[in-house]
Amino acid sequence: MKVKTKAYGVIDVDERQKLFFPFGLFGFENLKNFVLFDATQKPFFWLQSLDVTEIAFVLINPRVFRQDYTLEVTEEELAEIGIESPEEILDFAIVTIPENTMKMTANLQGPVVINKRTKMGRQCISSNPAWKIRHPILEELAGMEKKTC
Questions:
Q1: What tens digit of pLDDT does each residue of 97-139 get?
Q2: Contacts of 78 (CB under 8 A, 6+ apart)
Q3: Domains of the chain by range and CATH?
Q4: E strands present in 1-148
């Protein structure tokens, strides 16, 4: 299917990349239909609204820069999108990219959880106080490199 995107213009995406967010995302509760695809720059992904072309979110797997990250959300939130087992879960953090891209951050407090089986998604709230709204991605990556040297 053809999708008009904020960053890439009109692109072809597989129907299987369509996601439904019954509650929308925080601040965008009225937007329910999205597609998820790889961004041109790894390790990022793009969550593009199908409802409003100008709305899209950059996502990252939080374990890319925080290997100790654990998804800690309520069973009720997971059940609302039909998750029955951990194998069905894909989880991401929304990335904020300021003018100075070296200061990009990821929201680990509000993970985006996707059910691979039902293609439904939900933004949840982490119950772990260690996960903040603005984790500095590049700082965290630099810290990981120092630990492995």
A1: 999 999 999 999 999 999 999 999 999 999 999 999 999 998 8
A2: 89, 113, 124
A3: 2-148 (2.30.290.10)
A4: 2-5, 9-12, 18-20, 33-38, 44-49, 56-60, 89-96, 105-115, 120-123, 135-136
pTM over 0.90: yes
Distance in Å from the first CA to the final CA of the chain: 45
Tens of pLDDT, residue by residue over 2-31, are 999 999 999 999 999 999 999 999 999 999
Residue 94 exposed, middle or buried by CB count within 10 Å (0-12, 13-18, 19+) = buried
As a residue count, the chain comes to 149
Burial 54-90 (b: 16+ CB within 10 A, else e): eebbbbbbbebbbeebebebeeebbebbebeeeebbe
Question: Which pair of structure tokens corresponds to residue 25?
Answer: 């995302």
